[in-house]
Amino acid sequence: MAASSRSDPLDEIRFTGPVEFEGGIHNNSVLYYFATSPFYDKTSNNEVLFQQGLNNPNMMQFLATREAFEGRLRTMSGLEFIVAQEPAETGPGAGTGVWVINKQTRRKGREGEEDEITVHSVYYIVGEHIHMAPSFADIMSARLATISNFLGNVLPLSTSAQTWTPATGRVYNQTPTAATITPSTQPQSQESRHQSDVGAPTARDIEEAFYLHEQYGDQYMDENPITGRPGEFHLSSTGRAKVNLSAAAAAKPLPVKLPTINTKLADSPLTSKPTGKETKSPKTPGGPGKLKRRKSSKAAVTPS
């Protein structure tokens, strides 16, 4: 009997075979056990070959073993159910008990070519229960639904953990630690206890914090904090690096003593009066001197 109603989707059914099935599930009976499930299609080649073996004595040989039955199916074209994987051996005489059966369509190729096989669905038998394997589209749909559900739960929590005001901007509420919790501030509800457990650091959080410290340990967000109120914000510092005065004084070079400069105006040649005793410039030897006027005789001699 099936565990669910047959009106349910096939991939949501877990089928268990009838109790009167004799011999149990083994290599030669696994396909006959699968034929009792709602996953079986009576228009397949399996049903055609089974009916031929019951009504034709010459075809009974193909019903004796699974190898002979599947060998006959490989010579036919059309829909078939075939064992794709047998239970893996985990020890001497001990297997996993998991059978994998494919529902597929076989198209015979030309002579010398392999048959074209199209797999429609996969089933697996675990113990006495038969399940239909989900398709890739069903798996992706379930994964996306799970991710969407988690995101829908996380976004309200992140919104409730922050506040925003024009004066302070966006502020995130910090989870109180065990040292700061007092009997009056201890959470009472299960939801608040869950939120406090979320803030507990893990080994990965500690590793990431150490990595950030190694990369950006000398940078801080509050090196130049803003003070004041809206409309009158001021920086608490100009942002220039502070100078170590003791180190600057030690590194300052000693002053160099320069000669004194006479700044008295009385001694300046521009303001002193001439005394006449200044040194005259020497005459240039051989230079043009002052021409002397030649004296003429007082009486001129008149020629007779």
UniProtKB/TrEMBL annotation:
Compartments in which it is found: Nucleus
GO CC entries: mediator complex
Name of the molecule in the record: Mediator of RNA polymerase II transcription subunit 6
Annotated stretches, region: Disordered: 179-200, 260-304
InterPro entries attached to this UniProt entry: Mediator_Med6, Mediator_Med6_sf
Skewed-composition ranges (Polar residues): 179-190, 260-274
An annotated Gene Ontology molecular function: transcription coregulator activity
Signal peptide boundaries: none
This protein's record includes keyword Nucleus: yes
GO BP, one annotated term: regulation of transcription by RNA polymerase II
Subunit structure: Component of the Mediator complex.
Alphabetical UniProt keywords: Activator, Nucleus, Transcription, Transcription regulation
Keyword Transcription: yes
Described purpose of this protein according to its UniProt entry: Component of the Mediator complex, a coactivator involved in the regulated transcription of nearly all RNA polymerase II-dependent genes. Mediator functions as a bridge to convey information from gene-specific regulatory proteins to the basal RNA polymerase II transcription machinery. Mediator is recruited to promoters by direct interactions with regulatory proteins and serves as a scaffold for the assembly of a functional preinitiation complex with RNA polymerase II and the general transcription factors.
Record family assignment: Belongs to the Mediator complex subunit 6 family.
